[in-house]
Amino acid sequence: MNKRIRWILYAAIVVLYVLHNDFWFWYDPRVVLGLPIGLTYHVGYNLAAAVLMFLLVRFAWPSHLEVDEKTSPDSAAGGER
Amino acid sequence: MTLTVVGIYMLLVLMVGGLSHRLFRGTGEDYFLATRTIGPFVLLMSLFGTNMTAFAMLGGAGEAYRSGIGVFTLMPSAAALVIPTTFFFVGTRLWALGKRHGYITQVQYFRDRYESDGLGLLLFIVLVALLVPYLLIGIMGGGLTLSWITDGQVPEWVGGLVICVVVMTYVTYGGLRGTAWANTFQTLVFMTLGAATFIYVIHAMGGLGNVISQLQEQHADLLIRGDHFSPIRILTYTLIPLSAGMFPHMFMHWLTASKLSNFRVTLVAYPICIALVWVPSVLMGLVGNLTFPGLSVPASNSILVRLISHYSPELLAGLLGAGVFAAVMSSLDSQVLSLGTMFTQDIVRHYGYDNRMSEMRQILVARVFVAGILVVAYLMSLVSSNTIFALGTWCFTGFSALFPIVLAGLFWKRSTKAGIYASVLTVVVLWVYFFMQGFGNADYTVGGTGIMAVAVITPASALALILISLMTKPPGEAHLARFFADSGA
Fold first, then answer.
1. Which member of B20, B192, B264, B403 has the lowest number of beta carbons within 10 Å of its beta carbon?
2. In 3D, which of B224, B36, B312 has the Cα closest to residue A41?
């Protein structure tokens, strides 16, 4: 179930990416919410990106990557191997 | 007046940077990475402030003045999705590997991941070569701005000098913590002042509704993307923000997070911060056409400054100047520190001391490098012509085109050293080729098709990586286990 949500959200990233190119508003002169529609759409787009990030953080967080505070790195200041 | 405000601002920045020194622990990891203790808010402000340059505020407005609302689609809107996505998939994983294996620089990671010193050296050279022009742009942009706001009273070389001295002081003194704190302060300053000047100017012009209807009558073409932007250009430009995944200074800030969960706030807030800075900037560029119609291309880049000095009292002009300096310095400091760190760790410590170098000496060497890099960059800025500003997109293109290698390092076990070499060399060759074709033409696209060069170089680099990796011997399981142990996703 969890895995399924994760992949749905990954797919949502792709969908949102495609929606960036709103060619249907390219020549549309209407003003919506006080701004030209081509701009309103993209302000909404930024908000949609924030919402998607919220969902990713909430439901698809890579918590397996969290490093235990107690396990120290190989060496204190940038040791390599 | 303007100069007083800017002067006070510089002192404040120095104080914030200096204050951070009280937490300094005197170790190498503290100087380079603040001992990986940075919390969520400072992380967000550092990453955002570092990636947001003065060109967003000034150049973006200038572009909107000339080409209308499409500029918002082209740059900030694409970045709003691509950059946090990069942080989500790449930043978090590099943070975990950095913490587990104690990396400080990108080169250390790649050298270790692909067991190759030569590859590390090649990457070092390419990353430094791509970053230096970016430094110059910051210094020269700061100098130009100060000369604009003061009506030419302050020559360009003075502004650049002030920036370099202030940044040098708090970066050499405060290391990463000083940089992160100063960044946070400065990012808050430029966001607040940007919003304040926007509200003031729009109000002075009779309100947003009024200016939009005036624009509808006089400049309807600027309120649509129309023929100013082709869809293919907008589409291929979306690859440019991938550069955030390969910037040395972004890598450095990622590693400073104290906990993985600190990335959460950054991811969600990043697109909102972008909109907060860019919407005012684009709108100001648009309305500039009502007050100052018909400016030439170079003149229109200062449209923001012109509007402020026309509509607002001198105090606000000074504050805007401070805001622009904030945007310039919050990028410059991280870039310089990351270069100083790379020279110290990847060259001096690795080759000169066989990785055994006392922490005090590491800090000393890094301080000398930070100071040296700023001196050299400043001197170069005095002799560079303004055509260097056209280099901005090219720097981004190079970093974006290197993105496949970090993706392969993190997600593709089958990728090999030879594959990464092939990828980096492909980027170098194609970048030089397209650069020769396109430099000097701000609207250059491949063969005039509207396709950005980045959309050719990046896939080519990925293809080279895949093909050569598959043709060479896969890396050993034991080695891979160190990098993929618990990255189940």
1. B192
2. B224
